[in-house]
Amino acid sequence: MSSQQALLTILDDKIRQDRLVLPTLPEIALRVRQTADDPKVSLAQMGEVIAQDAALSARMMKVANSAFMGRSIKVSTLNQAVTRIGLSQIKNIATAMALEQLFVSEYKQVQQQLDRLWRDNIQVAAIAVACLKSYQANQPQCRLSPDIMTLCALVHNIGALAVITEAERHPEVFGHPLFLTSVIDKAAPYISVKVLKAWGFAEEFQLAAKSWRVCKASVPLDYTDFIRLAAIARGYYKSAEEQQLLLQQYIERDVVAVPEFMQQPQIASLYQDIRALFQ
């Protein structure tokens, strides 16, 4: 049996027997989410929790002072940053900012795969949020949340992390990146849903992870559609005809205006703003 087939067999067996090791949220993200779920929590208490992690504190300051928040006056303290972001958004934004801590390995080849996966997730998030914000500028009745969109895009393929972790035991697989990609495409959707359920993420996150690969628009429009737009922009779909039909549906529904939507100044500018948050 080839190493590639062995990995597929191991993954299938562990999934069936519920023995696959799933990634766990970073501890700081868990504390933030638990604190945010407390109906009596104050902004000051939330600031104290975030202050326990220097890297996350710096990221939250960057978010608060970014174009993402649409403010020109800079904040200079963490409490000011938390106040500007607000409790309703901070749960998702802080989780998104902390996720990078999961994409770490002591093995060079594995780390290269994890780096690529994280970069892909950031690109998907930047495209999805840029398209959503552009759409909302023309359709203010759209109540989808940019902070939920950011986190949803960052975890849309979280099952790939579990696949790569399992593949660490088969280092020869990393010499075949196309094979590893095909394994991820096959196994990640189911694993992603399991991870998000274990993390206590809402149904909208699970739905996006499960169905974004399906080349068909949702009715009504939801977070998954903006991840699909990112997939179109990145040339993910294997059928050019299906991808073109999907894009045409979004144009007809005024989600995007033109086939080359990433070249539109508003979307291109928003895309750069979102990417800058993770640099």
UniProtKB/TrEMBL annotation:
Domain HDOD span(s) in chain numbering: 22-215
Coiled-coil intervals, chain numbering: none
Highest taxon in the source lineage: Bacteria
Pfam families for the chain: HDOD
PROSITE patterns the UniProt entry points to: HDOD
Descriptive protein name: Signal transduction superfamily protein with modified HD-GYP domain
